[in-house]
Structure formats: structure tokens, C-alpha cells
Amino acid sequence: MDQKVLKRLVESISKSVNSFKKSEIECFIRIFHNVVGRGDVKLANVGLDRNTFRVILHSIFGMTDDVLMNRVFFAFDKDNDNYINVKEWVKGLSVFLRGTFEEKLKFCFEVYYFNGDGYISRERIYDMLKNSLHQQSPEEETDEGIRELVDIALKKMDYDNDGRISFADFEKAVKEDRLLLEVFGPCLPDAKVQWQQRIGLGEIFKDLKRNPC
Amino acid sequence: MGVALTRSAQWTAAGHGAKTLEVTPLNEAIVKEIIMFVESFIYKYPQEANYVFVEPLEWKTNLDPSAFGSGYAVSGTTVKSEEVDKNGEPLLYLSVPQIKIRSFGQLSRMLYIAKNMKLKEAQACIEANRNPVAKILGLDYNIISEEIGNSFVSNILDKITKDDDSESEIKMKIALQLKQLDLHLLNHSLKHISLEIRLNPGTVKNDIELLKQFSGKGKQTVLESIEYTSDYEFSNGCRAPPWRQIKGEICYVLVKPHDAETLCVTCSKEGVFLNGGKTDDEGQINYERKGEIYKDLVTLLKEKSAIFSENMSKQEIKFSEQPQKDQPNEAPKEEVAITHKASVTSRKSTQEKNRINLGRSQLTKRLEPSLNWRTSVSSKESRNTLRDTQVEKHGGKLEKSRSSVSPGRAQLIRKSVEKIEEIISDSSSESEEDEEQPDHRQEANADLPSEYWQIQKLVKYLKGGNQTATVIALCSMKDFNLAQETCQLAIRDVGGLEVLINLLETDEVKCKIGSLKILKEISHNPQIRRNIVDLGGLPVMVNILDSPHKSLKCLAAETIANVAKFRRARRVVRRHGGITKLVALLDCGKHSGEPAQSSLYETRDVEVARCGALALWSCSKSYANKEAIRKAGGIPLLARLLKTSHENMLIPVVGTLQECASEENYRAAIKAERIIENLVKNLNSENEQLQEHCAMAIYQCAEDEETRDLVRLHGGLKPLASLLNNTDNKERLAAVTGAIWKCSISKENVTKFREYKAIETLVGLLTDQPEEVLVNVVGALGECCQEHENRVIIRRCGGIQPLVNLLVGINQALLVNVTKAVGACAVEPESMMIIDRLDGVRLLWSLLKNPHPDVKASAAWALCPCIQNAKDAGEMVRSFVGGLELVVNLLKSDNKEVLASVCAVITNIAKDQENLAVITDHGVVPLLSKLANTNNDKLRRHLAETISRCCMWGRNRVAFGEHKAVAPLVRYLKSNDTNVHRATAQALYQLSEDADNCVTMHENGAVKTSFSKYQPMVCVITKPCEHGSRAIGNYIENIRHPGDKSKSFADHNKTVT
Predict the structure, then answer these.
(1) Which CATH superfamily is domain A101-188 in?
(2) Where is the EF-hand domain (chain A) (predicted)?
């Protein structure tokens, strides 16, 4: 890869991303480059497609829920072109790994609300929670259980009682109890990874560098 | 009678020709009542007894014709009564085996003749004549007797007007009698029925299930096996075929006891009995009853199998620790269930069942340690619709008793094993803690609050949900008022504690955090604490202390702080290495080099240290833990944390130090770590709790002189003195006065306190304060009183009166301090006047009777200055009736301090010749002589003084010699204590006036000792004590010239008399 292009890219990205050092940004760009596997093409025009990204989410951040992984993809993909370009990649990761509480709050809400009207609706919650009970009892009972769980969640978070969760609701609830940040399913790297990243970001991606997927 | 017979009497199966009465207690009772009625009929109503029945009562009898005597014509197999009716027909006609009787008179006689076959005859009669009333009175009367009340009376009138003859009148009377009998029988049978046990499928099934649990091979089980004959269960819970169900039979069971053949048992609504057994070829059951009816299966088996009975009682004993507290709650519940079934059950059997249920639940636990047991119960519940009420209640009960049995039993075992250790590892400062008290349950039959059901639902999600569902449920659970006992116990009772603790063992950080947040709150409840320990929650939490997540560490430490409020928990923490880990939490500066990367769920290092200190504070109440904290290097860390300025941090840190300062090791370390300085600094804090703990820590540490000086040097006395002015917070006041007391042991500190006007304030605190404060205040005043100036201040402030008033208390620590203070005051003659006026000496004297030696000694010491300074002391002492005898008898005590103090008192008493005479009469000389062989220098000194005093009377000198007191006294000279020497020299001088004593002294080398070996000493003591040197001189003179002895003795005697 052209060092000059790389340097310029690092420079431009580092203006908008504060939480990473330049060396780290460079590292992420290299990883992106490796993963995409097409070093010769102009970096601005290529990106990670959904499947590749999901593999990363799964293998590095330990995510398992397909629905949520898709959601995370769309949260990364700010320009909605179904590809994550290098800027989106670094920006997304900065929230993902070193985001402030507010950034993460926004990120999670984006992941959860999805249908664009700015609210998490009851149906959305149901969709997200429908696999949250172990299938022991007959389906009807499980279904009933999930509906009740949705009620519990709404009762907890829907402060204005409009049957859906607005960002204000979400913010208030999470500020009261941080455990509620990932209330409808894991969409951030789990705590184990967060702790590991203190040792060094590079560690996490070591595997990835060695065998790009 | 008809009604009673048809309705209450228990007839065998209907529709099989001749019906027979069953042999049941109820039927027997009814028949007996009827017999009594008939037998007494002839005496009560002689006229009616002659009434001839419309139809004869006819039945097959077993009576032998030969039994009939006079009044009957007996011929072969027939008997005719001589009594005949209008038509000449005999009223009794027996033609074997048929008998016909047509009057009550004959019935009575027949019963009389039948003697012990009465019952059989009456029964046969009733069985053969299903409607006796109709036969006796005719059909129309039968109808009347069915009716009741007004209509009956009107019918009587009707009849009378219609027939208007004597016969119908008699008929009426008989009808009335029969009616009354009928009513009586009904009442009677009702009583019987109410005593009867009605079994239902639910209870039977429970019994059988229970017994199944206890069955199997081996000696410990109650039965080898128990099983149903049929696997099919009808929807009503019965297993008997429908045509047998009609007869009330529920199921048939094959029971194989250890010591008997297989029994085939029928369980029916009436009870449990053996049937004819299972026929081998067809597998059919012979349904006929073959034995007595028992009230339940257990009773039957107890009767049939000795081993069953024995093992069953063992089981009952095993669990009998529990039922007492559980029964009151559960019995009413059971009752509800039963009345629901509309059957009457005796209370006794209810309780018995309860006990069995308990046993069963215990067993369930043992067999199924996992959480699955609950689902298995509930699946059973859903299978049986008809028994819903019953089984559901039992299910609920199972759950309750399960959690209640385990702690009690576990405790019992542990207690017995580790009792000794517990006692040793106990700290003195554990008075405030909650000791293990019996669990109290929520009223089982009270309406459960709505929270209960909501929490139950949430716990369901905790059990069956993934991480996401669990977190939602945990967050939602936190919204309940977890400080409220209802919620705390609800979580436990629905099995939430187990789940919460299980969550701690998972990898999910968020679940652990959520779970700990709840545990932290509910562990404020003493019962929950114990449950957590019983469920093994502490080791898990101790492990979490190693977690890299600070917030997890914090929460775990805080929860441990709550749980470790009782000693068993503290021990568990220590055993699992918790102390070391908690101490490690205190080391918050270690990671300060790292970037301040604030992770999502993280908290600050300071917070971690605070939580660690909080947990250590709880743990530090046990001695062994104090040691562990010290060994883990906790003191330097605590000292470092003490330098911070966060109150939240300081309180637990100082609290821990204060607990630990009760140990000598700690006090040394605290001095070394310069902790006092910071304690003093924090006395100036605004936080009352912090002030309290600092003062408390100073109180503990100030046992040591250097520490007391440190407190003064760091300026701690002024804040202490000023804190005295705020008396609202009694705990703090107690701590502050305590610190002042200990500090005032040093003279320099007392001077400072005087400067700060603390003494006046202390005097003001002598009234209207709790005992904890009073002990310290009086202790402090006692120390202050050692100085003249302070005594004056106390007198001037009117402190003597309240002090004397406190002499009547019962608190031992307080009395020790009060006597000391009063004694110190009595040194001033002016104060002594006040004490005397308030009758303080008498109060002190009566404290000599106090059972506690410390109080006795302290009171005796206080009496010395009183006697010294009182006007007319001799007269005063004599005025105490029996007082002198009391003092002399105290010489029999085996407490050295008491003996020394009493000797001192006697020395003062003996200054008065008259009193000396009295105590001599009470035998003071032999008692003192007996004490002479002692090594205790304090006692030696006072004893020698007393002896020299007592020599002044009569032939006491000689008596001391006779009681061999002289030789030991000579040895006192070898002591290192100059006070002892001085007193001994005086005593020896007095004794040497007797020639024999001089010989003894010479033999024991008194002269040699005092001159050669201890000459320098003698020289030293002669200087300050003119009297002592003269004494030595005198007695040496006496020894050298034993010849003069008798002369000088005579002289002495002269002077005395």
C-alpha cells in the first residue's frame, strides 16, 4: 500500500476520531485493508460487505445474534450503501471500543430502533427478545413469557407511557442503570474484550491480521 | 330412630339382599344407645312397656331356649312368654332360630337374658327390621316421626281428637320417646363422625409418595417397597375401579415391610385396611376387608411392622427441630384445604401430616439438589386437576419448608462441630451483632402481597432466560423496594436466592453485577444473610474479589460487608482467603500508573478501597479476622487510607481500626504507623459517625501511655473536651467520654482537661445519661480526682452528690468506677463530710457484699480514706450493724486484690481500740495469719501493716506467733518492694515484743537478713521514714535482749490496759 496515501488517510481520519492514536488508526486501516484483501483498489471506494463484517463481529467480539449483528452493521454503515468503508470502519470501532458513555448510548439506540422513526416499538422489542427464553415449555407458553418480558422491559424504560421507547426514555433509563445499555441484546464488545483491550488493541486483531477472513 | 338408622348408620353395600350393619365404631355406638334406651324403657315407662306392637319385631336369634327362665314357657326348641296380648298371643315367641317380640317390656327382658350377647341381638334385630318404628306403631306413625317441630305437635293433637282412646295416647307417648331417641342418636353419631378421619385421594397419594421416598433396600429405610396395584389414575385421583370407588375406595397398595410379608392394603375414604390380597393367577384383588380400619396408612403400617414404626419415629425425631415453628403457620393452611373438601379432620392428624410433609421436603432436597425439583412439583400439579387445591397448597408448602429446613439443620451440624472454635474466635465487641435467631416466615395463610407474585415471575426469567432476559429481570427486580422485608423474603421464598447466587458463578459480567446489586440490598436482612451463607454464596463472592472489574469487586465487597455481620459468615470469609483479598482491595494506589481509561461499567479505585474497608470492618469483629487482617498487611494500608479526606472512606477505615485496636498487637502497630495523628485530625470532622469511631479508636488505643501522650501532642484533647458539650448523640458521647477517661490516666492530660473546663462538663454528665456514658464519665472523674485541685472542682460543682447516688446501681463496671471516684474524693476532709452526710460510707460498706470481686475490692479501697478522714470514724464504723464481721469474713476471699483492700480497711478500722477489740473477737488474727504465706507484694504490704496494727490489742502478738505468722513475715524482707520492707519492719517490731516471736525471728535469720544482705536497703528506708528506722532499731534491740522481753511486754500491757 502506498505509504503516502496511508499517511494522508490517517491524517484525515484522525481529525474526526479522537479516541485513537494515529498509530492505532494506521493499524486499523491496515487491518481493514487486509480484511478487504484488495490493497490495489482505491481505498475510498471499497468496503466490508455485511457477511465479512459479521464474521469479524462473531470471531472477535463474540457476538452471536444474527439479527443484532445485522443491526450493528447498519449502525456502522452511516451512508447506507451496504458497505462499510474505511472511515466508517475506524469511526465505528472508536465508538465500539473506546466510545464515551454518550456515544455508546447513541450507538445502542441506533442498533435497537432500526425502523427509522426514532422509537423502539413494542413489536421491535418482541422481535429482539423472542429468543431470550430457553425453550423448555410449549411454544405458546414461551410466547406468553416473552410478551410478559416485553411488558416488564417497557414498564421499566417507557417513562412517557406511550408504549414505545424514545431516545429520551432510553437515555434516562440507561443513566439510571447502566446495565440497561445493552438491554435488548449484546451489541457492544462484551466486557471480557473490553478488559483485554487495555492490554493493547493490537492483541485483539492479531489473529485477524494473521489470517484475514 | 328411623332417621338415625337410615342416615347415619353405616350399611354395607346396597342392593345385595339382606343388608348388614358394618362393624364400625359409629354403628356400635348407635346400637349401644338403642340398647340403653330399650333396657331402661321398662322402668321409665312401665305403662308404655306393655303396649303391643302393631307388628312383631322378628329376627334370627342365637339365644338358646334354655336361657329363658321364669315367666316363659320353655318346651324344646320353642319359648313362649307367659305375658300375652288381648288375644292371648304371647308377646315373645321363640322358635329356634326365629324370635318374635311384640312389646318393649319383652324386648327389655330379652336383652337382659341375652347378657353379653346383647349387642349381637340388637344388631340382628335392627338388621332384620329396617323400619322398626313402622312395625311398632304402624305406618302412619312412621311418617309423623319423620317430621319435626310444630307440625308434629299438631299431628299429635289431630290424632288425639280423632281416636280419643287410651291406646292412641300411649302410641303418641311412644312415638315421642322414639323421636327423642332418634334425635339423640343423630347428635351422638354426629359427634362420632366428627372424630372420624375421612381420607381423600390427595392425602392418600401424599402419604404414599412420602413413604416411597423413604423406601428401598437397607436398614435405614422404613419399608422395602410400596407400590400401587394399578398404574392408571382416574381424573379424580383414585386408582380403584369405578365399581369399587362407589364404596369409597381410593386405591390399593402393595406394601413390603422389612419384617413381614407383602401386605395388600385398601385405602378408602373411611380409612385404611388390609384386604384379601391379590390372587396370583389373575392379578385380581380380593376386595373383602380382612382387618381393622386404621385412620391412615402410616398408622396401619406402624401396627403391622415393628421396623417401620421404629424407623419412622427416627425420621420424625430427625426433623422435629423444625415443625414447631412451621406448624403454626402451616396448620391453618392445611385446614383451609380440608374444609374446602368439606370433610372434618382432627387437628392431631393434621399436625402429624405436616410433620411428614416436612420430612418429605427435606428428602426431596437431598435427592434432587438441582433446581429441577421445582418444575417436577409443578408438572405434577398440572396433571391433577381435581386435586388442585390440595396439591397446590402442598406444592407451595414444599417450597417453603424446603428453604426453611436447610438453614436450621445446616447450622446445627456446623455448630456442634465448630462451637469451640467459635467461642475462641469471638471478639468482645460483638454485642451489637445479630446472632443466629430462628427464621421467621411470612404468615403462610396471610394474603401474599402482589410483589410476591411479581417477584416470582421475575425469578422465572432469571431461571429460564438468556443473558438479555436475565438482565431485564434483574433491573426490574431492583425497582422493588428491596429494603422492605416483604420483598426480601419473597425473593428468597420463590427460590430467587439460589438463582442469584448461581448467576455469580457465570461468566456474564452484567448478570453478576445485576445479581450483586440485588444481593447487596437484600442482605441487610439478617435472615437473608444466613440464607446466603447456607447456600454457599460467600465463597463465590470472595472469588469475585479477584475479578478485574472494579465495579464487581466493589459490589462483592459491599455484599460481604453486609453478610459478614455474624460470626459464622466471618469465618467463612476468612477460610476462603477473603481477608487477604479484601486487604488487597485497600491498595488502591497500586494501579495509579495506568491510564485513566474509564470503561463502561467501571468505578474508581477509591471506591474499591472504600468497599474493601467496609467489608473488613464487618469482618474485623472476629478475633481471628483481626489477626488475619494484620498478617495480610492491612494496617499500613489502613493508615494510608486514613490520610484521605473522604468521609465515606474514613468511616469504615476508622471503624476497622477501632475494632482491631482491642488487640495489643494492633495498638503497637497503630502507634508505629502514626495513626493516632490522623485519628485526632478526624475528631475535628463534621461527621458525627466519624467522630464517634475516632473517639472509640482513641479509647481503645489509649491504654498505652505513649499513645495518651501522642493524643495530647497532636492536640486531640481539646476536640474531645469540646465534643462533650454535644450530648444528643449518645453513642458518640459514650465514645468521647471513653476516650477522655483513658486519656486522663496521664497526669498531663488531666491538667489539659482542667484547662478546657472538661471536668465541670463531666460532672454535668453524671445525671440523665445511659450507663455506657456514665461508666466512662465516672471513670474519667475518678482519674481526675487523684489531684487535689480537681477534687476541689468536683466538690464545688456539686459532683459528690450524684456520685454517691450512683453507688446504688447494679452495673458492675459502673460500680467499680464510682467507688474509685468516691474513694478519691474522700481524701479531702471537706468532701468526706459531704459523703458522710449523704450516707455514702454505708453505701460503700454494703457494696462489700457485692458478688463481684472487683466491686468488693474497689469499695474496700474507697472505704480506707473514708475511715481515715471521717470524724468519729470509730463510732461511725461501729454503727454499721454486722459491718465489722462482714469485713473480717472477707479475709476468707481468694482474690488477692480483695484481700489486700480488706487488709487496708482493717488497718484503718483497727486504729480505734474498741473496734480492734471487736474484730479480734471475730477472729481476725487466725485469718490474717493464714494469709501470711503469699508472694503478692501488694497483699504483703497491707497484710504486714494490718498485723502491726492488730498487735496493739490484748495477746494478739502472742496469738500471731501461735498461728505461725512470724516466720513468713520475716521472709517478706527478701522482697524487692521497699513498701513491703517498711510495713514488715513495723510488724516485726510489734511482734518482737513477745519473746517467743523473737526466737522465731532469730531462727529465721531476721537480723542477719536485715543487716547483712539488705543493709543498704535498710539505710535507704530509714531516711525517708523516720518511723520505719526507729521500728527496725527497736525490734533489733528487742531481739538482742530477749531477757527484757517479758518486762517490756508487761509494760506494754500496762499502757494498753
Answers:
(1) EF-hand (1.10.238.10)
(2) 64-99, 100-135, 145-180
